[in-house]
Structure formats: C-alpha cells, structure tokens
Give the backbone structure.
Amino acid sequence: MNDKTAIIKAAQNFTAKGLIDKAVAEWEKLLKDRNDGNIHNTIGDLYLKKGADHEAIRSFNKAAEIFKKDGFYPKAIAIYKKVLNIAPNDTETLIALAKLNAERGLTANAIENYYRVVELYNKEGSTEKAIMVVDKMLHLSSTNVETRSKIAYLYFRLGLRERASNEYASIAESCLQENDIARAKEFFDKALEYDPTNLSALIGTSTLALKNNNHIQALEALDNALAQAPHNKEVLSAYAKLALDMNRSDDAKKALAQLRQLDPSSIETQKLLGAVYIKEGLIQKAWDELLSVIDNALDAERWSEAHELLHSFRGLVTIPVKQRLLRICKAQGDDYAISGELKELAALHEKEGASETALQLYKEARGLNADDRATSEKINELEITLGIVKPALDMEFDAAEQITVINNSLEKDIPFEVDILTASGLEKEELTDDEVTASIQQMPFEINIMSDETDKEIHPAQGHQVMSADAFAAKIAEADFFLQQGLEDAAILIYEGLILDFPDNEEITAKLASLKTAGQQPDAVYNEIKGDGPLLRTAADDDLKALFAQYENPKENKVDYEGHYVAGLDFKQKGLLDEAIKELQKAAKDPDKFKRNLTMLALCYMEKKAYPLAIAEFTKILDSMTSDDSTYLLVKYELANAHMSNKEVNRALELYFEIHALDPDFKDVSAKMASLKGQKAASPGPEDMPRPKRDRVSYI
Amino acid sequence: MDHLEFYNLKEHPFSNAVDTRYFYSSKQHSEALIRLKYAVDTMKGLAVVVGGVGTGKTTLARRMLNELDEDKYEAALLVVIHTSVTTDWLMKKIAMQLGIENASDNKLEILGQLYRKFLEVYESGRKSVVLMDEVQMLQSREIMEEFRGLLNMEGPGGKLITLVLFGLTELDDVLALDEPLKQRVAVKYKLSGLDENVTREYIKHRLGIAGCNEEIFTPDAISAIHHYTTGVPRLINTVCDNAIFEGFLLKQKPINKEVIDQIGRSLDLKSSQ
C-alpha cells in the first residue's frame, strides 16, 4: 500500500513538473499489479497533455475495454467519446462505441455511430467494409422503417442498386403487414425505381392493387413480374390465384401448367388446379385432381384443411367423398355430424347394393342415437332383406318397429319390461335376442315397453278418447299404404288426425313435416304446423323447433346494424370511403333504418365519384317512398345531383323539374335547372354515357 | 425525436417517388405543359419531351395526365420498365389501357379494335391521348413503325390519336430508327436543370408541402446544392434528403454549406462552381 501511495505521489510530482514520460512510467508500475481502467485513462490524459495523440488513444481504448468488461458501461462510453474528440474519424472506436450502444439498447446512437463509419469507409473506398457495417445497421433496426429506409439508401449510395431495391421491397412488405398501404406503395415504388425487375416489389405492387380492389392493375404487375421471370414459381402461383379470382380460368390454367412443369409434385398447384376445375363446374375432374391432396391432409390430421377442400365436393354425393367427410367428423368427435354422415354413406352403399355394409353403417349411426326411429326402421328393413330377421307379415301392429326398440334396449342394456314376457312366464335373462323376437312375433299383440329412458306407451292427448294400439297401428298402416300409392294428401289427413290424439308422437310429427316439406318451403311448413292449427300446439318438438328457428325471426340473428352504421359514419368522416362503404352496405340491410343507412351509403358513393352506384341506391330509396314522405324531395334532389355528376343531363333535368313542380323554392333547384338548360343548349350532343373510372397508368 | 420532427416536417419532403402534390411548376415545366396541351388539343399527332436523368420528365408526364380531364380525353400513361417489350404486347397494352375489353392477342385485330375505339372516342367529342414514359428503353425499329402506324389512323377531322413520348435524350436516337416517325414529331421540348433561384424556390416549395415554412438551409447551402446538382430536381431531392438526415445527426439548424459539401463528396458529385 505504501508503495502504491508513493508511486502515485511520485507520478503526481512528475506531472506537476511537466515530466510526462516519467509520470507515465510511474503509473505503469501500478498496472503491473492491477489492470485498472482508471490508470489507463490517467495515462491517456498524460499522453494527450504531451500531444501524443496516438498513445493517448491507445491508452483510452484500453481503459474503455476494461470498463466495458467490468460492466462500467457509462464510463466506457465516456472514454470512447473522449477518443472521438481526439480522432473523430477513428473507425475502430466508432465501431466499438456502436457495439456498446447497441448492447445497451441505445439503437439510435448505435445507428448514428455506424452511419458515420459507413461514410468514412465509403470515402476511403472500402466498400466491402462499408457494406458489412450497413448490414449490422440493418440487423439493429429491423423494425424501424425510417432507419431501414436510410439504410436502403446507403446501399444505393454504395452502388448496390439491387440490394437497395430489395431492402425497399422488404420495408414495403413490413408496411404492408402493418396495413400501412400508403407507405408500402411508397417503398415498393422506390424498390422498382432502383430495380424495375425486382420481383418482390412487382408482386407486392400486385398485392397492393388487390388491396385496393384493382384486380386489373394487380394482374398487370404480375404480368410484368412474369415478363421478368417467366419461370418463377412464386410469381406463377400468384398469377394463377389472381386469374382464378378474376374468373380467367384459361390464364390460370396456363400459369398452372407451367408451374406443374417446374414442380410436378407441388400440392399448391394441385389445389389451385382443383379450384379452377371447381370454378368451371368440372367437379369430377376437380375431385381427381384434389383427391391425393385431401388424403394427404387427412393422413396428416389437418382436419380443417381437409374439410375445406372437401367442402367444394359436398354436392358430389359419392362414397369416397362421404367416407372422407365421415373421417373428419369422427376426428372432431361431433356425434350429430357423424351420425348424419354415417346414414348418408349407408344410403349410398345401399343404393349400390352393398346392403351388409349399409347395415353396419346404419347400426353405427343408431349407436350414436338410439332414439333415431328412421335409422332403426332402416336397420330392420335391411335385416329383413338380408334374411337376418323374418318379416312380420300378419302383425296387426308394427311389431318390427317395436322389436327394434327392444333390440335397442338390449344393446343399450336398458332395464325393460315386456308384458308379453311376463305373460309367457319367461325371464328376460333366459332368452336370447332372437328368442325374444320370435316370442313377440308369436304372441297376440298387447305390448308395453318401459324403460328409464323411454316411454313408448301410447298416450292420447288430454280431452281425446283413448285409441287402442290396434287402431293406432291400423291408421299408420293405412297412411303408409296411401303413401306407397303416391296419395300424400290422404296420408297427411290421417297423420293430422293422429297427431290430435298423440301430439307427443315424434314419428308422426316428423312424417308430417317431411311430407309437407316435400311440397313447400320450410318456413311455410313451419308456419302451418306452428300456427293456430292443432298440430304442435301442445307438444313442441325441440329439434324441429331448432330447425325452424332460423326462419322464425331474422332479427334474432342480432346483426348489429347500428354498429355498422356508426362505424360507416366514422370511416366516412375519416375519409376512408372504401371501409365506410363496406360498413354501410351491411347497415343498409337494417329493415328499420334502411332509408337512412342507404342514403349515407349513396352519399359515400357520391364522394367516391361512383355515381352510377349512388344513383342505384338513391333510386332504391326513392322507390320505397311516397311523395308524402318528409325526405322525399331531398332524396330526389340528391338523385338528380348524382345524375348530374354522372353527366346524365337529361335525367337530372327531369328530376329537377319534378322537384320544382312540387316545391319551386326547394333548395337551388331553380338555379340548377337554368344552368342545365344552358348546358344542354350549348352541347346538344347525345346523352352523356357514364364512363367507368379506371386507373389510367400502367407499366409495361 | 427523428429528423422530420427536428425540422418540423410532417413527411419526407424530398422523396424521389412521384407525388403530384409536390409538382413544382417551374417556368420550363409550365412551358412544356402548355405546349403538350396544345399538341393534344390540336391533335398534332406526336409530341416528344426529352431531358437528362432526374429533370422531371416522369413528374411532368403524371402532371400532364392529371390535366387531361377524363370527360374530354380518353387518356392513358404507359411507363416502360423493361426493354424486351414486343410490338404485340405493347399494342395490346395500349388497347387495354384505353378501355378496350377483350383486347385480342392478334396484332392486326388489335389495330382494328384500336381504330374503332379511336373513332368512338372521336365521335363522343373527346380525344384519344397516349402518354409513354421512358420510351428510350424501346430500342426497336418495329415498335417505332407501329407508333407511326397509329399516327396514320385518321378520321373525318384528322388524326385520331396523339402520342406524347417522354424519355432521356437518347430518345432522339430511338426515334431516328424510323426516319418517317422522327419527321412526324410536331412538338418537342427539352427539359434541363433549374437555375439557382429556381432551385431555391423548388426546395422551399417542397419543404412547404411537407409542412415546414422555415429556412432550414443557409443561402450558402442552397447555392452549394445547386452547384452539386446543376439544378436537376432528382439530384436536388437526393442531396436535400441526405442533408436533412446529416443535419439532424449534427443537430444543425439551419444546415450549412459544409454539410452539403460533405454529402456532395459522398455522392461523388462535382461542384460546378
């Protein structure tokens, strides 16, 4: 310690006497024991005093390194700045400072330091080094658009036009992701300015045009991209998609044919080609194209993708389609959907004569819904066809149906009582299913099946006489007979009679609804059944209710028309006309405020200079009004203005005349009439035709 | 705070992307515009604007298009962005851009479609105008011959279309590929750099559009900008754009000549002083 104090004292003395070298020598003695940043800093100061800048910088840099290593970042930064005061163009120090700033999250400072380095390297002609530094800057500012823009420009200044263009395109893509359309356009334009063949920029320009609903311009951009890179898969794919959207199937197919040549195994190409065929109505061809894609998705358990692909083929009711839909339903565990698909698949197999497969599928469906009478009937029918069950020819009641119920109960292990069994003195455990069936078929009919879950006793409605099971069965058989003969009306009459007595009977309700639906619209059926008639008055069927609910009251869909209107107004005020129009188009469906909302929509079209659309909307409003309506003249006036803006002078004049006839002082109608008459006199040419607006700039 | 805020700017004033809001009507640009309008209104057939890089041709072309009211003119601006344009493709693009639906792929049919379109436009009391930018890239005699073909289409009142071609000075050589076409040039205008006073006004104009009404360059700096750029608008934009960033890094307001000199050197620009 004494030594250290003595050394410091000696160093200070030497410094005071101006003996810098000796002072430095003293300080350096201390460094032998400990590599101290402060000592290096002091030595640096001494060299600086002496005018030995180079040595001073070396000492300062050592000091800064030590401070940095020890975590004294502010000190290290201060030292680097000290160096830069001596040598502002010291690239090594600038880079060290930039790194330190970057590590500390001071990105802007780091960028500033690097920027200076680039300038220096550029000046001395070290382009490669400059590029490396620019890359570092880019890495640092991957999200800051302004800085990236500057960096892109630096690339340009370094002679790297293509790289500058790529960077601008990349910035534009970021802006696009952020939905900053204006900036995206600015940067795509810059990218194309530096490299008109920049594919990303051309594709991006196309995407931008699409965002603005300008399909033609989008296609042009892709045309240009294709002219640059006729074999670029990304461009071809984008082109095919766009052509598909624009219903240009031939163009889409051409692009897809090229894509297939380039990559015969591309699933994306298959998907697009499938979509083209679907659009062309070539469903079978589309199926052939997409089958392997669908199966791939299924095997990879990408259910939603598979479902989406299959969705287009729902109209193609074939076994392969249904099998795959069933697989998806099973994977998703939706019993209701599974049951539906199983039955449809079973029906298809049955139609093709594969009765055993159909039976298995029906049984599987019934396993999901034991109360599904129709399926149970189908199973019985098939079992009889296949000889598994003998037909009950002489039965007075539909015993087969009841057997199904029993079978169901057996399968489900539901406790049941069958009077007949008790009457015969047999216990259920002693019988096989076939024996039960046989016993039932042999006994005179008097049957009651009871279970915890089902109550199949025939209960007449209150106020009605009890109908015997025999009579009930006879009525059903009679109705069935009429149905077989094609006499639906007669069958309906019987069912309607029966439902008065048995309003809870689901089978009759369903049959009735099914018969009526065959000849009417669902809402009509529902209104009839639900109305004042007796049919469902006392026994509402929940499923049926749910089915019809969608027709009952559209307001219950709870579309927030007011919300759309308010949003539309908001967008309009902000000048975002396209968004406003979208919202107001939704709001215009509000039956209560249709006039107000449609008027606002029409005004948006006016503002957008889409006069024909404004005219259509104003006309709609006017058609829904009478001349007594308080806003009748106002709407007519707006309609006239729209025609005038659309250069349809005659029509505008007619409307102004009509307004004038009703109220000569209405707004400035008189003045407008006078002005229009003057115009007509001056240019008596043909009635101006509305010309669609289009983008008048194109790239070739 | 970024450089825009530092100089009270709402947006980049010196972007080189074409933005018609920033169009500065210098004397020569106004003159060019008047002559081109005259050529179009009197259906002169062919008008040509040439100028060095960055002298404002593209801006002028956009401005010209904006001046052509859709009610009176069936106008289109085509910007050439690559050299391998074929005659078929070019004719089809012109047809499409003039609103011909289902433009044929067959050039002869396209010419028929175009003729019918021109007549239709003429009969509706309007005028067909095709503006083309960067035409010097179309170094093909065949294309020049097609242009001549278009100019030969005449109706009861004379020519049915006006072509206005914009390009670098090399455009003269391209037009010379078809001598008869070159002879048809009815109006020609050459754009050059702005003088120092106009350069000052130009910078002031752009700063004003971007929201800044104060002097952010010293008079010496403006003078230096003019000397480095020889008044070429695009170069003025580039130098000023850099100057704003550099000035911000140095926290300098107004920006002085030294900053401009540094940028001039960085951009390898030579001072004309």
Observations:
- The longest strand of chain B covers residues 73-79.
- The radius of gyration of chain B is 21 Å.
